[in-house]
Design a protein that fits this description.
Blueprint (H helix, E strand, L loop, with lengths): L7 H14 L8 H12 L7 H8 L10 H24 L9 E5 L2 E5 L1 H14 L6 H14 L12 H9 L1 H15 L1
Antiparallel strand pairs: 1-2
Helix pairs in contact: 1-4, 2-4, 2-5, 5-6, 6-8
């Protein structure tokens, strides 16, 4: 069961748990968690659950109401991180970040900010070493998207330029994963 990709109900369960136990210092939605896990599986070294799990919660594990609730969240997390690891290692072309979508002035707009926040959180937890210039530029493209304020998109948002920046993230992630994989 730990090798099955998550379905919509699984992501709903993750979202409910993140909202229930999260705060301003924790991962708050499945998009951010997806980015976090993507950085972890792309890291130069494997990160132990004892390090990455508290990282979801800003360093402090929740006071779970029941052991079953904790067990379910951990199992779903492990399934998703395993899916991402397998996907990036075996079929990276199939990898697609779980970005959020919104409508803005009559246009469908992909929001990458929270996913990128999660990715950068994962980079920090995994303690990535400095990157060569090419890879540092790829990471900067992800970091730049994390700095955008997508909670209130500006009226003058250049939707085409925004979507181009967002479209560059998945290829950057694949390249960073491949770089670290070649260094292991």
């Amino acid at each position: 069961m730990q090798d099955q990709p998550l379905n919509a109900a699984d992501f709903d369960a993750i979202e409910s748990t993140l909202l229930k136990y999260g705060d301003d210092h924790s991962v708050l939605n499945p998009s951010e968690l997806d980015g976090y896990f993507t950085a972890l599986v792309s890291s130069p070294e494997q990160v132990d659950i004892a390090e990455w799990f508290p990282g979801i919660w800003g360093g402090q594990n929740p006071a779970w109401e029941t052991p079953d609730e904790a067990k379910q969240f951990i199992e779903l997390s492990v399934r998703h991180i395993n899916t991402l690891a397998r996907q990036l290692a075996e079929d990276s072309a199939a990898f697609a970040p779980r970005f959020e979508q919104t409508e803005h002035l009559g246009h469908d707009v992909t929001l990458a900010e929270e996913w990128c926040f999660g990715y950068l959180r994962g980079v920090a937890v995994a303690n990535w070493t400095p990157l060569p210039a090419i890879q540092a530029t790829l990471l900067q493209a992800i970091s730049d998207c994390a700095e955008q304020d997508n909670f209130e998109l500006p009226q003058d948002l250049d939707v085409v330029a925004h979507q181009q920046r967002v479209a560059a993230i998945a290829p950057a992630v694949r390249a960073l994963h491949d770089y670290w994989l070649s260094q292991r």
